[in-house]
Amino acid sequence: MYETILIPTDGSDGANEALRHGIDLAEKYDATVHLVYVVDEGVFGHYGGIDAIEHAEEALAEAGEMALKVARERVEASSLPVETHVERTTPHDGIVDAARQVGADLVVMGTERRSEEYRHLLGSVTERVVRASPVPVHVVKAEPSARSRVTVREATTADADEIRTIARRSMAASYESFLTESRIQDAVDQWYDAEAFDELLSDPNATVLVAEMADELVGFSQSHLVDTPAGTTGEIHWLHVDPDARRSGVGTVLFDRTRVALKASGADRVRALVLSDYEAGNAFYETQGLTSVDSRPVQVGGKSVQERVYAESVPAEERPEPQIESRTTADGETLYVNYEESEIGSEAPFFAAYTTSDLETRWGWFCSNCETFDNAMDAMGRIVCNQCGNHHKATRWDAVATE
To answer: pLDDT digits over 349-384, tens only?
Structure first.
């Protein structure tokens, strides 16, 4: 009865339920499955400027590739023939066009609406496809999951108290094995007191997003853009979810939106930082399609621990060379600047400097604002450039009290 079945996908719960039904039908009729993802051109108006539009489109395309990869693996696991397609238009037009192009006998899609700002293949889109499709449409009604009820927006000064509460509760649940409650409280107060939070929100290179469920704030992410000779990196420094809201898809939605926002802001690549000993955090980034690319020591409460760096997967042949540059100090000493290891500064990033090219022994820091090694530590343990006044702002573990 059906030889060719088209299944739109975007990785959402509703699309996944439709995929399950579509695979069952394809097995019954020995049909070929065609998967389609639509890069929704309708969302680009959310971002200003040509560059931002290009980055937003790139981020959505990357999300689509991941959704198609996962869906394809599910179809192949059922030993069914499968092909994938990417359309760039409005969702309903892309689905209808794909149905015509592949000669589909049936379209299988869900009705659940996504909670993200950009719209993907669902909700009212289903109704439009039903009206315009040249072939029958099998509609799969999916009950809204907890994930579909998550909304994400930019943080405001009014969120400061709730963000401090979530950061404290999340850190206590995640790092209780090596951080005391008092140390966590001191760090959170330093990071997110009224003055520090206002400064964070006014930083053009910082992105702070909050996640809400039922009008209650349940998570937030904090990211920073870092310019390097290889391009601009979007670093996710924190992604906290209240312990009571975990395992509800909040983290995944927040990560997806953070990645899109960073790409729209000009990031060429995205990476995330998490302590190596925090197994749940490492597993989370791996499930989001990131790969561990580096590990480095950090001081947490006077104790040296390893922090792992996760980055978007890139084929080996396309990976850039490590960004290490030799520079000479005012005293004639040769040092090696590692542009992959940075700390946020008030004017520009500080990059780690080493005595040898193998990056074994840390020498200090290189101020990229005035290109000097003439830096010192102030009484609070912050990096301060003696030449231009650029200073390191405590955004991560350096705010945790030491012994």
So the answer is: 888 899 998 888 888 889 989 999 998 876 555 788
Spatial contact of 306 and 295, defined as CB atoms under 8 Å apart: yes
CATH T-level topology, domain 149-316: Aminopeptidase (3.40.630)
> DSSP class of residue 319?
P
Q: What is the 3-state secondary structure (H, E, C) of 289-302?
A: CEEEEEEEEEEECC
Q: What is the dihedral of CA 164, 165, 166, 170, to 10 degrees?
A: 100
Query: Are 386 and 284 contacting, i.e. CB atoms less than 8 angstroms apart?
Result: no
- Return the residue matching tokens 């108006």: 45
Beta bridge partners of 303: 300
**pLDDT tens digits along 27-68:** 999 999 999 999 876 654 444 444 444 555 676 777 788 889
Per-residue confidence at 114, pLDDT binned at 50, 70, 90?
Answer: very low
In angstroms, the CA 396 to CA 387 distance is 25
Look at strands 206-213 and 150-154 and give their pairing.
antiparallel
Among the four given CATH numbers 3.40.50.1220, 3.40.50.620, 1.10.10.60, 3.30.470.10, the one describing domain 4-145: 3.40.50.620
Please state whether beta strands 137-140 and 106-110 pair in parallel, antiparallel, or not at all (unpaired): parallel
